[in-house]
Design brief:
Length: about 260
């Protein structure tokens, strides 16, 4: 049964809940989230066993939990937002994934005992966390000795291009806090005792219309954001692989990075 306990929220987390509580099942149905080679790569990196217990943090549409379901014994799919967690739970039930349970949980204050899981996953969510160091600390706490942490998130380059990416992300989605650099993630993982096994980067193409529709941007705001991207310095547009047709912004690409780490 899903847990209905609601954690207390600070302002940033309240924005996350407000943003994602209003999008219905858009993230469950989002092809960009439901597909991708990164999902299969997460499974490969985790080397799951049928006896493993797994926690998926900020599960969103539940795509990571769904992908891992055939390979592990049990999964807790957790999220801060009750509404999006409900839609994920409905999808799990429709797909017959009986080894997945849902739980409302704050990624920075997890309601689980120490050493509860052999695998912890989190995909494309920590840029919403106001205190990612607390998140990493909590992951270390709930993992068993030798447990595996598989993390994917948007990462940004140093300098102006990174600042620009965070700026446009926040304009599209007010619940965005900050995407970190790869070096920042590596330092944070090491500080919390993780041994980093792999760091893999890959581009993610975003169709601009779909990217802005998912966050339910008003048309005027969407046009203003497109103008900001189109007027960015050439070096920034090149870094984002901005695609333009007949003067119209079609798509751009950012970078996702997969980190595989174990906790002694």
């Amino acid at each position: 049964m899903p847990d209905t306990t609601t954690p207390e929220l600070d302002e940033a987390k309240a924005r996350v809940r407000a943003q994602y509580g209003s999008v219905g099942d858009a993230y469950v149905k989002s092809a960009g989230h439901a597909t991708g080679k990164d999902l299969a790569r997460m499974v490969e990196a985790a080397q799951p066993l049928p006896t493993d217990g797994m926690l998926d943090i900020a599960t969103g549409g539940g795509h990571v939990a769904r992908t891992f379901s055939p390979y592990v014994g049990r999964i807790v799919a957790s999220d801060l937002t009750p509404e999006i967690l409900h839609h994920a739970g409905v999808a799990f039930a429709e797909q017959g994934l009986a080894n997945i349970e849902t739980r409302i949980a704050d990624a920075e204050s997890l309601p689980f005992e120490d050493g509860s899981f052999e695998i912890v996953t989190c995909r494309i969510a920590p840029h919403h966390f106001p205190h990612p160091d607390r998140f990493v600390s909590e992951v270390a706490r709930v993992l068993t000795s030798g447990g595996r942490f598989i993390l994917i998130d948007s990462t940004v380059p140093d300098g102006d291009a990174g600042v620009f990416v965070n700026r446009i992300e926040k304009l599209r989605d007010p619940s965005h806090v900050r995407s970190l650099t790869i070096a920042e993630w590596q330092a944070m993982l090491s500080e919390h005792g993780f041994d980093i096994a792999t760091v893999e980067t890959f581009p993610k193409r975003h169709d601009f219309a779909d990217w802005t529709a998912r966050s339910r941007m008003a048309e005027s705001d969407r046009e203003a954001l497109a103008s900001i991207i189109l007027s960015a310095p050439d070096a920034t547009k090149a870094a984002l692989s901005v695609e333009i047709e007949d003067g119209r912004l079609v798509a751009f690409s950012d970078t996702k990075t997969l980190f595989t780490a174990t906790h002694p």
